[in-house]
């Protein structure tokens, strides 16, 4: 199973990048033995600033074939970490790749939002997309730990 975090914009060397790399490295180390495969970030850039519809075309091209599409969107569903882990485990059991999509400053084009298999909200507030990457990376790592039955996640 391949986990892709597909995001608009290039993340330069920064505290956010350090955190994302750390969480995904930790997930990848633990994930292999759980059949969760590896997680990586793929970035697309709308260099000419043509807007959401053009970003959607770039994003569509970068979605791995057959992957479950999960949008990160404040209008999506708020779910618990154990429920998120169960979803990830479900896609693993179906041998399905998963592609999480994080939009740019204007969000994710409605055409792409409609294509999604699922949409996750980190609450009604709007977060900067770089922080959403960090929070998602941590939740992916946390999900791996929940599926592994380690004490990392405590209720
Ligand atoms: C700055 S936000 C764009 C907000 C934009 N107004 C919209 O309608 O989506 C950039 C990206 O961060 C993610 N994001 C921001 N807040 C979020 C939240 N509360 N839950 C989930 N994703 C969020 C979404 O993927 C969004 O496309």
The number of helices is 5
Number of strands: 5
Task: List the domain count as a whole number.
Answer: 1
Overall shape: it is: globular
Helix content: 40-55%
List segments where confidence is low: pLDDT < 50 over at least 5 consecutive residues.
Answer: none
Cα separation of the termini: 28 Å
Structural class: alpha/beta
| Mean pLDDT across residues | 94
Rg, please? 15 Å
Beta-strand percentage range: 15-25%
Q: Can you list the strand order of the major beta sheet?
A: 2-1-4-3-5
Attached small molecules? S-adenosylmethionine
The arrangement of helices and strands along the chain is EHEHEHEHEH
* CATH class call: Alpha Beta
**CATH third-tier fold name:** Alpha/beta knot
Please tell me the CATH architecture by its name: 3-Layer(aba) Sandwich
For the sheet with most strands, the description reads:
5 strands, parallel
CATH superfamily: SPOUT methyltransferase, trefoil knot domain
Keywords: Cytoplasm, Methyltransferase, rRNA processing, S-adenosyl-L-methionine, Transferase
Family: Belongs to the RNA methyltransferase RlmH family.
Organism: Thioclava litoralis
Catalytic activity: pseudouridine(1915) in 23S rRNA + S-adenosyl-L-methionine = N(3)-methylpseudouridine(1915) in 23S rRNA + S-adenosyl-L-homocysteine + H(+)
């Amino acid at each position: 199973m391949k986990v892709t975090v597909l995001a608009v914009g290039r993340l330069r060397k920064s505290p956010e990048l350090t955190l994302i790399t750390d969480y995904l490295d930790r997930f990848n180390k633990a994930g292999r033995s759980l059949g969760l495969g590896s997680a990586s970030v793929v970035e697309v850039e709308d260099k000419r600033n043509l807007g959401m519809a053009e970003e959607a075309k770039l994003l569509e091209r970068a979605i791995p074939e057959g992957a479950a599409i999960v949008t990160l969107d404040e209008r999506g569903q708020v779910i618990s970490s154990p429920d998120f882990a169960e979803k990830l485990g479900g896609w693993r059991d179906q041998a399905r790749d998963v592609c999480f999509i994080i939009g740019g400053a204007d969000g994710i084009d409605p055409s792409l939002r409609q294509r999604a298999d699922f949409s996750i909200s980190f609450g009604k507030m709007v977060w900067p997309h770089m922080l959403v990457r960090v929070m998602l990376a941590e939740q992916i790592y946390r999900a791996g730990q929940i599926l592994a039955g380690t004490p990392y996640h405590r209720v």
